[in-house]
Amino acid sequence: MDHLTRLENKSIYIIREAYYQFKDIAMLWSVGKDSTTLLWLCRKAFFGKIPFPIIHIDTSYKFPEMYQFRDERAKEWNLNLLIGKNEEKLQEGMGPGQGSKLDCCNELKTKALQQVIKKYGLKAILLGIRRDEHGIRAKERYFSPRDSQFKWDYENQPAELWDQYQSTFEEEEHFRIHPLLHFTEFDIWNYVKREGLPIVPLYFSKNGKRFRSIGCVTCCSPMDSTAKTIDEIIEEIRISKTSERSGRAQDKENIYTMQKLRALGYM
Amino acid sequence: MLQEERALSIVIVGHVDHGKSTLIGRLLYDTDCLPPDKYTEIQKSSEGLGRIVEFAFVMDCLEEERSRGITIDTTQTFFKTPKRRYVIIDAPGHKEFLKNMITGTSQAEAALLIIDSFEGIRDQTRRHAYILGMLGLKQICVLLNKIDLIHYSKDKYLELKRETTDFLDQLDVHPTFILPISAIHGDNVAKPSEKISWFDGPTVLQALDTFEALNVEEKPLRFPIQDIYNIDEKKILVGRIEAGRIGKGKKVYLLPEKKKVEVKSIEKFLEQEVTTANYEESIGICLKGRQRVKRGQILTADLSSTISDKIQANIFWMDPEGYRAGEILRFRCVTQEVFCRIEKINKKFDPASMELTEKQASSIRNAEVADILIQLDDKVVVDPFNEIPEMGRFVLEKGGRPVAGGIIL
What we know:
The complex is a heterodimer of chains A (267) and B (409). By secondary structure, chain A is α/β, with parallel strands linked by helices. Chain A is built from 8 helices and 8 strands, in the order αβαβαβααβββαββαα. Chain A has helices spanning 3-21, 33-45, 64-76, 87-91, 101-120, 185-195, 230-239, 257-263; strands at residues 25-28, 54-57, 81-84, 124-126, 143-147, 173-177, 209-210, 223-224. A 6-stranded mixed sheet of chain A has the order 3-2-1-4-6-5. Chain A starts with a helix and ends with a helix. The model of chain A has no long low-confidence stretch (mean pLDDT 86). Chain B is 18% helix and 38% strand. Chain B has helices at residues 20-30, 36-48, 63-68, 98-105, 123-134, 154-170, 204-210; strands at 7-14, 75-80, 85-90, 110-116, 139-145, 177-180, 222-231, 234-240, 245-247, 251-255, 259-268, 271-274, 276-278, 282-287, 298-300, 306-317, 323-324, 329-333, 336-349, 357-361, 363-364, 369-382, 393-398, 401-408.
């Protein structure tokens, strides 16, 4: 079995395991390359008929290309798409210009997600994070319990071995499930290529710049790049020496911002 | 280009402070796999704590880990040599984080056991070595680190090497290499060192490159049913092939009932007319006729598995709260989940102090290993760990929490 097929089969096993353990489950789709890959793997796991909703947490500051891509795929793949927004904070004018990045991410992403989880009574959510993205994410489990306050008890995570995942928890909580944990950025692009997956055009070079990681317009900066095709992106990453999230502002504010965000329930 | 496409996963284990995280930082740095912005971040974080650049911070990303100078949880990262890519798993060396060490080790194909040359073999060295043996890891390289602290002495290296070999022999653990290194100074990690010109063995990277991705041997089919989907009027049994292969039209057994059934079709998304599927594939299967099926049943090619509600096994306890006689546990092996209790603890001991063995015990504490007899509420299907590892290893849960791992003899 080749490398990508092995990764794919492991992810499908985890997705199916999550659905068996939790019927009140949904997938979180940021519309980026990773969660679009996860969405594709969910389609494979359920033979094209995903039996749970797909949630987009919308800060309302995303790129127009992302909204367009989202709506096209939702229609084409017949998705049960739900949009989660922290309307109250948006009304109050919360946005990237106001206060710290930590507060903005926390309110418009984490709190918006909390609201969705509560509204739909979700017990588990599938997320497309990967270990090689950030040191903190490298410490994640495939099945990661969060308490009702959304806290991640990273000092006391359950053991996880031989594909046996903890799926019950005494307190009221939900589980974060990470079926892509073992993919690297390099693997993702090779997989996107192999599967012929559609991807938001922002990843491709325009006027000498492209986005390596996408999120809100205000907090993502493009990098210098001439990569206009997936093959060129793969080659660029192969020789690249900077890390993937180097264009993401929230990681830089303070060394431990990412840890603090994740402990608060950030995705 | 790399010679190999897939990445080999290696775990780094050993006693606390013997230099695991430092070695990893060194490996990433010397193989040019540490992005400059990460290096800057580590520099900043080290300065914030008033220290010189700490390579260990590559793996220790949590604020608590950096300020306390210890690894709490397993981290995975990647580096490459001209031969292949590596996934490197850093496992914590503290006893209190043993479950994190086991989590990391269970995902590895090879291991580096690191020992401080100055301090020698310590409690966690013993525990970790024991766990490597029990989990069946065969590709092991021992690193005698901090060779600088024993003044690059050949005699001291040979003495410690002998001691290490004697100790590992008792555990039936046989390392492929025992290498002298200094992770902090980079001696014999990526490059040979002039300071130990007397040593003619490989560097750490050369040693790793000799390890192989594990071969898949031809074995009889084991397909545990994970779930059952009804899609487009088809009843699809989904799951992963844990051993062997399955073919369309083949007759197989449905265990534990031992009923003969026929594979009508193999289902994969967007693929038509799939005729066979192999080990590690997550697939769907339709059976001929109307069959009563449920999660936890196993499709097999033969009847060589053990089908029983009594299981003899070796377990390692990894939860701070130990086991007391009479407690209800849940046995999980592939997709089988059955409540059980420990009927008898034949013997138990703590691998950190090898000689103390207690027979006929009634409790098991954290980090102890035990030889036990399990009584299950229902029959399960298992194989010896040495024959089909996937079907011969299990996890015990208490109140939903994984508390022990075990292997079937």
